[in-house]
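hey so u asked for the seq, here:
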Amino acid sequence: MNVQTFRTPSGDEMVVLPRAEYEALLARAAEAEEDDADVAMFDERMAALETGVDETLPPEVGAHVLGGHSAMKAIRLWRGLLQADLARNAQVSQGFISDLESGKKNADADTLDRIATALNVPVRWLSRT
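ran it, structure tokens below
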């Protein structure tokens, strides 16, 4: 590093370095801040998982959601159920399940509870996207 130092008349020590080295230092500092933020976010998420505040969906469900499916459809596929099976177990029509999965309709709390029970998952999983 090509650095020069000098003292001001008031006694402050100053450092002079080429602009390229200064910009490289700034870039490294920004990367370190970003890394620190990533670590803090990771620690926060891990604490939420450990305390039960949050939980992860099974990887297969996440893959289906990333593939464009609704959370409900992703969970149904993960459970290996047909829409007709889920509809029968939740006491709704197959068409209604189709409409829920495609976002054409919304279910009330009681219906969502029956669907969650039929899928054997917490209701909150059905609202994930």
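The two ends are 50 Å apart (CA to CA). Helices lie at 19-51, 59-66, 71-79, 83-90, 94-102, 109-119, 123-126.
lmk if thats what u needed
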